[in-house]
Amino acid sequence: MADLIRFEGVIASTITPSRGHENAIPSYMEFLRGRGVRGYYVLGTWGEGPRHGVEHRKRVAEKFVGNLETGEVAIVHVGASDMETVKELLRHANDIGATAAAAVAPFYYRPDEETLFRFYAELSETSSIPVVLYNIPSRQGYSLSFRIISRVLGELGNVKGIKDSSGDPALALELVSEFRDKRFIAIGSDELIAYGFLIGANATVSGVAGVFPEVVVGVYRSIREGRIEEGFRYQRLVNRASSLLEGLGVEFETQRSALRIRGIDLGPPPEPVRQLTGDELDRLKKGIEEVLVQIKTTDGLEMRS
Predict the structure, then answer these.
(1) How high is the pLDDT of residue 1?
(2) CATH classification at residue 35
C-alpha cells in the first residue's frame, strides 16, 4: 500500500454493494483501476456507510482492503452517530490493515469545538493506522472553521489528513497552503477537483470517480502535466456527470444503476430505498451515453494536442 501523505491522484468514493453482492467488489475495483483510479474511499457518503449495518460494513471493508494492489490506498470510513460504533469500526479497520480510517465529524448532535477536538483525539490515540478528518457540512449539519481543523491536524499526531467536502475554495486554499507535504489534503467536492489540483492538493476523493473514473482521472492528469485548458474541459465533464447522477431518480440508487448500465452489478438498493422507474432508467441510459461520447471527444482532443 502507498504512504498516505505521499499519495497523489484520484481516490474513488466507492458505491457499496448490497448484502450478498460483496463478491462484485474485485470486479468493481478492476473497473476503477483500469481507468486510472489508485485509491478507494470505502463506505463514505456515496457509499452510504451510515445507512448500512456494522457487520455489512466490515465485510465490505475487508473485500476492498483485501484486493488492493501495490501503490494503492484504501481509506475506510468509520463514521457513525454513536462513539461505540465508531470505535468498533476503527478497530476493525486497524485489524484488516486499511491504509487509513476516516471519520465524519459528529452529526445529528452538534458538538462545540472542544468536543470535536476530543472526538478526533480519542480516535487518534486508539488507532495505529492514520486517521483522516472528514468535513462535509451538508451531512454533518454544520461547518468546521479553519481554526478547529488546523488545531486537529496540528496537535493530533495520528490525524494525518482531511477529506474536505465543504465546497469552500477559500478553506481548501488555506488547508493546502498550511499543510501541504505535512498532511494528506484531499478535495472531496467534485466541482473543485481542477481547482484543488491547481493549488497543490494531494488528491481528490470523488463520488463521480466511483461511476465515471475516466473523467476525474482526466482532470488530474491534465492539470499535473500542465494542460490546463484540457483539465478544465474534463472538469466540465465531471460537472455534467455529477448533475446527471445527483439530479435524477433516488439518491445513490441512481449511481448504483449507472454502474449496472456500465457493466458492474452491485445488487439492489438497501431497504427501504426504491429502485429507479423505467422512465428514469431510460433517461439515465441516455445521459450516460452522452457523457461517454463527450469523454471520447475530449480524449481525442488530448491525443491530438
Answers:
(1) 59
(2) 3.20.20.70
